């Protein structure tokens, strides 16, 4: 199981059908080193494939949520010094796509992903949190698209996802200038759902929200996530058509809906069957 593995950059705890992933490199400001880029998507895939939880909370340790990509990732020797220029650039493109996939997994997993953010959420960390379903932060949090300060363009998802969350004019200002967006502004702009006074109160509240989600039918919640993300990227007509296709296959009132009615009649919490596990190594 995921919870039995040990990691260099994070920890995983699963309780009450909620998986809590914690970034555990506070001395390095939870920067995203090479190990992180291997471990993070692996953990998310494991939880999804094993149906190990019905909701995921991602939080951090120390003063800051994450300082973004570790500079060591930029300076790592890729072994392309003597590679022909076109092929070298093609390899770089594949690397960028691989990094993008590490955060796109937050959208493709079947369960909602909630972010609990304290202090700085910088550079690559913004790429990560914009791929989540919901974001919550402390009053001292700030968000910064740092890449222009380094002479580069953000390339792992911020510029593609943030315009779907806040106004495009504000996105451009933040991207062009690299200025810090404080928690209050992030709340007003709609980037975060709630702002909390401190880290402990935020975690308590976000985990409670995740447990509330986990108490619902996992199939119904997965359907909500699928439909909302699809609607974000398609027309209303296309989204309604896709909804009809989803509902014709997934809506089985004799199962989860009937269990809810029975539970209410018996004055108990409903018990739902978990989503099926996925074995990525087999087709059948």
UniProtKB/TrEMBL annotation:
> Which SUPFAM superfamilies does this one have?
ClpP/crotonase (SSF52096)
Q: Which Pfam families does the protein's record reference?
A: ECH_1
Q: Which InterPro entries match?
A: ClpP/crotonase-like_dom_sf, Ech1-like, Enoyl-CoA_hydra/iso, Enoyl-CoA_hydra_C
Give the highest taxon in the source lineage.
Bacteria
Q: Which family does it belong to?
A: Belongs to the enoyl-CoA hydratase/isomerase family.
Name the PANTHER family for this protein: DELTA(3,5)-DELTA(2,4)-DIENOYL-COA ISOMERASE, PEROXISOMAL-LIKE (PTHR43149:SF3), ENOYL-COA HYDRATASE (PTHR43149)
Please identify the protein, giving its name as recorded. Answer: Enoyl-CoA hydratase
- The organism encoding this protein is Shewanella litoralis
């Amino acid at each position: 199981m995921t919870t039995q593995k040990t990691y260099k950059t994070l920890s995983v705890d699963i309780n009450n059908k909620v998986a809590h992933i914690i970034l555990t490199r506070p001395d390095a400001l939870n920067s995203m080193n090479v190990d992180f880029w291997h471990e993070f998507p692996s953990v998310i895939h494991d939880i999804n494939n094993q149906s190990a939880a019905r909701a995921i909370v991602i939080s951090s340790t120390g003063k800051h949520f994450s300082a973004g990509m570790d500079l060591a990732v930029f300076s790592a020797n890729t072994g392309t010094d003597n590679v022909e220029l076109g092929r070298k650039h093609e390899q770089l493109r594949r690397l960028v796509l691989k990094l993008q996939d590490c955060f796109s997994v937050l959208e493709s997993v079947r369960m909602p992903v909630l972010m609990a953010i304290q202090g700085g959420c910088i550079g690559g960390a913004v790429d990560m949190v914009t791929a989540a379903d919901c974001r919550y932060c402390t009053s001292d949090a700030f968000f910064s698209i740092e890449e222009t300060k380094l002479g580069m363009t953000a390339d792992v998802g911020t510029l593609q996802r943030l315009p779907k969350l806040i106004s495009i004019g504000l996105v451009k200002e933040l991207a062009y200038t690299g200025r810090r967006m404080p928690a209050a502004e992030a709340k007003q702009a709609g980037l975060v759902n709630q702002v909390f006074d401190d880290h402990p109160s935020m975690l308590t509240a976000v985990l409670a929200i995740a447990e509330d989600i986990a108490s619902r039918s996992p199939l119904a919640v997965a359907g909500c996530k699928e439909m909302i993300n699809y609607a974000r990227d398609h027309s209303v007509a296309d989204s309604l058509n896709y909804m009809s296709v989803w509902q014709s296959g997934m809506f089985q009132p004799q199962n989860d809906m009937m269990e809810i009615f029975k539970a209410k009649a018996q004055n108990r919490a409903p018990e739902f069957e978990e989503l099926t596990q996925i074995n990525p190594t087999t087709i059948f």
